[in-house]
Write the structure tokens for this entry.
Amino acid sequence: MLSEGRKKNRVTLLDVARHASVSRATASLVIRKSPLVSTETRAKVEAVMQELGYVYNMGAARLRADRSLTIGVVIPNLVNPFFTELLAGIDRVIDSASMVVILVNSGDLVARQETLLTRMREHGVDGIILCPAAETEMSLVEKMVEWDLPLVQVLRRVTDDCDYAGVDYAFGMRQAVDHLAELGHRDIAFALHGPVHSAYQERVDGFRDAMQARGLDPENVIRVPHQIAAIAEAAGLFTEGSRRSSAVVCFNDVVALGLAAGLYDLGISIGRDFSLVGFDDVADAEAMRPRLTSVATFPEAIGEGAAKLLLDRLAQPDLAPRKLVKAPQLHIRQSSAIWRGSSLGRQQESG
């Protein structure tokens, strides 16, 4: 037991090390949750910390390390469930490093994004994970370099000269188009929305390349509104007129959900009269009826990858820029079907 005199004094890490019969460096590794410490030693040191009433001074450690132990995450959209899953992956890795995420929403606006990044710098974040707003220019990346603020791009990229975690969008589009073509569809459309950025362009290029490879019309690309209700009202764009389709590949699952509602309102049965393929495969894809065929992009894994890239960058600032590009995977469910007809009212067979 401690003497009354010692109880009046603040317990130091050196006190903990001496009572646990380990070096101060080992005690420090225990506090930092280093995997270099054995389970037995960790348990012994933690028991002594509890016995002595040791309190880790986070503020002092921050000053010594010149680190805030906070990470800034900037995303363009808080509504799309894809970003919720992405953030879950980021937070899991950052939390395991005993750090904290500060989340902000740029609204896909360049000016707002720059203001948020400036505020994060002022608050001393250690690094940034950024899904760049549409129209973000290289000058922003150059500014981050001037600020000496480590940056990881996620999902979208402005440059190949800094770390990036994302998806092979072209491969995902090829899987979607190949699946529908193999079901017999020839009139396949691509429904997209939102502002133009690298991920947008990679999806469009991937769709067109996949259609050309199949000898199909690569130009049946149709923009729809941004909100689900408005997307539903636009469903007739795909079922009427000269560009009428039997199947649609969607920019993301939000577009697919909107079109599903609109096709239902038109009396068209998805998975029988019409085929629909989403992109991202978020939780709503499984909840939709009929269940949505969708290209899974694994947002949690992408988030984990982005966070690991940033932690590596913080530990080794001189690393060469790295890319982690996740291969997507088509999940076939009930919304895509074998093509059996030549006009609406045509019958398809679930496949």
About this structure: The mean pLDDT is 89. The CA atoms of residues 275 and 336 lie 4 Å apart.
